[in-house]
Amino acid sequence: MTVDPELVAMMDAVLATHREKNPATGAPGRDPALWDTLERLGLVRLTGAADAGGSGAGWPEAAELLSAAVRHAVRVPLAEHDLLACWLLEATGCPVDSAARTVCVLDDSGSAAAVPWASTAEKVVVAWSDNGEYHLADTGVDDLRITPGTNTIGEPRDTVTADLTALAPRAVDVDTALMSQLRRKSALVRSIQVCAALDAGVGLVIAHTASRVQFGRPLSQFQAIQHLVADAAAEAALARAATEAALSAALADDWSAPRLDFLVAVARSCAGHAASVVVRNVHQAFGAIGTTIEHPLHLYTRAALAWRSEFGSVRYWDEQVTHRAIAAGPHGLWPLIAD
Q1: What is the dihedral of CA 169, 171, 176, 179, to 10 degrees?
Q2: Which residues pair with 136 in a beta bridge?
C-alpha cells in the first residue's frame, strides 16, 4: 500500500505546524481552527466519494493521516468522522453535509457508553437493533442526551442516550453486513493508531539511548539497554505487520474476506500485547525523565494504552483469536494463518 510521498509530507507539515503553535499536552476537545484547516485541504473527508463532497482517497491515505496525527500528538476525530460516521451514511444512501460527526451503536435502552468525541460533534450517526434488524439515523446533538466523559489521555469518551421512538420515523434500514464492516473498521482504526504510537515511542527511545552518555559511553552500547530497545522494536514491528496484513486483506476483498475477522482479531491482539512490552521497555530505558509531563514520551505511551482497550479490550480480542483458531480445527488452522 503506497501513498503519494507529497501527500504524506503535506499531512506531516500541517500537523507539525499545529503542534508547534499548540504545544499543550492536554486534548480536551476538537480544535475548530485545526478542523477548518483540515477541511480546506480536503483531509476531513479524505475517503469520501468525490461526487459527495469527499476527496476520493482510500484507506491507505487515511492510515497515513491517522499515523501522522499520532506522530505529532494531535488529537482529532478524523477516523470517527470520515472512516466510520460519514462512510456509514454514504453506504446507506444518506446525504452527508459538512457537520462534524461521530458514530455509535445504541443498546436496547437507547444508550451507548464511551462514544468517541460525541460531546464535540455537531451530529452523531446512531445505529440500533430492533428484532435483529438494524436502523440508522443521522442525529443532531440537540436531539440526544450526551454525558461528557474522557479516556485516560483526555479525549472525549461520552455517554449518548436517545429516544428510539423519536428517532425511528426518520431512520433508514442498515444491512447487517454493513454493521459487521463498522465493527471491523472501528477495530482497525485503533490498531493503526496504537501502532503509530508504539513506533513513535520506539523512535524516541532509539534517539535517546544513542545520545545519552553514562559512564563514558552511550546508553545504546550497554547490553541491557540494547535488549530493552530490541524487544520494544520487535513488538512494535509485529503489531504493525499484523495490522497491515489485516488492512491489506480488507481492501483486497472490500472488507468481506472470509478470514478477515480472524486477521482483525490478530492485529488487535498483537497491538494490545505489544503496547505492554513497548511502554514498559521504553520507560525503563528513559528512566525518570520519561515519566515527566514535559517530556513527549507519555504522549505516545499513554495513548497506546488508552486506545488498545477501545472497540474491544485486549482480552476480548485474545478470545476472538482463540475461538476462531479452535473453530478452524486441526486441518483448517494452517490455512487460516497462512493464506
Answers
A1: -140
A2: 127, 172
Convert the pLDDT of each residue in 42-93 to its tens digit.
Answer: 999 999 999 888 999 999 999 999 999 999 999 999 999 999 999 999 999 9
Please give the backbone phi and psi of residue 287, each rounded to the nearest 5 degrees, phi first: 75, -155
CA distance 242 to 84: 21
307 and 207 in one domain? yes
Q: What are the tens digits of pLDDT across the range 21-46?
A: 887 654 556 788 999 999 999 999 99
Do 129 and 202 lie in a common domain? no
Q: Which domain holds residue 204?
A: 176-338
Number of residues in the chain: 339
Rounded CA-CA distance 241/21 in Å is: 34
Q: Which of 174, 202, 237 is the last residue of a domain?
A: 174
Q: How many structural domains is the chain composed of?
A: 2
Contact predicate 126/104, CB 8 Å: yes
What CA–CA distance (Å, rounded) separates 78 from 196? 15
Choose one of 117, 148, 174: the last residue of a domain. 174
CB atoms within 10 A of CB 183: 15
User: Long-range CB contacts (< 8 A, 24+ apart) of 251-258?
Assistant: 251/1, 251/58, 251/59, 251/60, 255/181, 255/184, 255/185, 256/177, 256/181
Tell me the per-residue pLDDT of 179-223, one tens digit each, with 9 for 90 and over.
Answer: 999 999 999 999 999 999 999 999 999 999 998 888 889 998 899
